[in-house]
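Deviation from plan, reported transparently: beta-D-ribofuranose complex.
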Amino acid sequence: MNSLPKIIIDTDPGQDDAAAILMAFGLDNLNIIQLQALTCVAGNVPLPLTQKNARIICDWANRQDMSVYQGADRPLLKPLFTAENVHGKNGLDGVVLHEPKTPLQSQHAAVFLAETLSQAADHSISICPIGPLTNIALALRLNPECVSGIKEIVIMGGTFFETGNVTPLADFNFFVDPIAAQIVLQSGVPIRIVPLDVTHKACLSEKRINALRALPNQNGKRLADILQSYERFDIQQFGLDGGPLHDPCAIACAVYPQWFTQKEVYVEINTHSGIAEAACSVDWHGKSGKKPNVSWCYQIDDEAFFEQFTQAIAALP
Ligand code: BDR
Ligand code: CA
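Because the crystal trials were delayed, the predicted structure below was used instead.
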């Protein structure tokens, strides 16, 4: 029996999503994880582009066998808000894109998740949502019993100590669909959150991009080009030295939680519109008396992370 960690990535590629998916394929090649499927959601760009980009990334990794599903084309209640200003018009700025060969599965991503997780062995699959949480919330609503198959949900999203990257208080993923985020957080499933508090401590640098570019494979150079184009936004906006590797941090946290300093806390997402929409109320000192529902990451061993990230990319074609 194969006991490697089984992971499903729910994604809205997105340049840092591409880095996360390529990292996961590399970890799969190294026999560290078993990547089960990619489920796509509208987010950084609209759904027709996120599902297409996910399939292009599978082609890059020479993994046309990977099952790719498309799910929600918009948030549960709000209109879709996208981030072409960061990721470019087609979501993967920095490289020339081709027509993908990896097929798109016909089943809706939320139906696939609900069915697969309810039929899986108890607590056997980790879900890494690295986009808005719409598909995950829909799956939990479609079949609440699917929680039995989930080991944990490791979410890239939210922020508490850092300012937001879309509004003063909100990160993009929670801002796009705060109601979905709140549904997932209230589901009772074990949840780790990898917020901006952590991802802003896992930034690119010239040295790190050069290390990717120096790899003797195509994907190292390709990813270096994508990430070089990606990081200009955060450097300008936050004065960071390099772009934060948001989404790869969630994959790392699912596989190497020991690299992340975490605290069990109660968290609620503000679902009301206004300047504080999608803000995370994180009960850091247990003032609410409510039972913690989240393990909140706030520090990262970024050297260990980046070393493994680079090794994973090196294991690709
Ligand atoms: C998140 O927003 C998106 O633009 C990135 O892909 C990442 O998932 C960071 O807030
Ligand atoms: Ca993303």
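The chain has one domain: 6-314. We consider this an acceptable substitute for the interim report.
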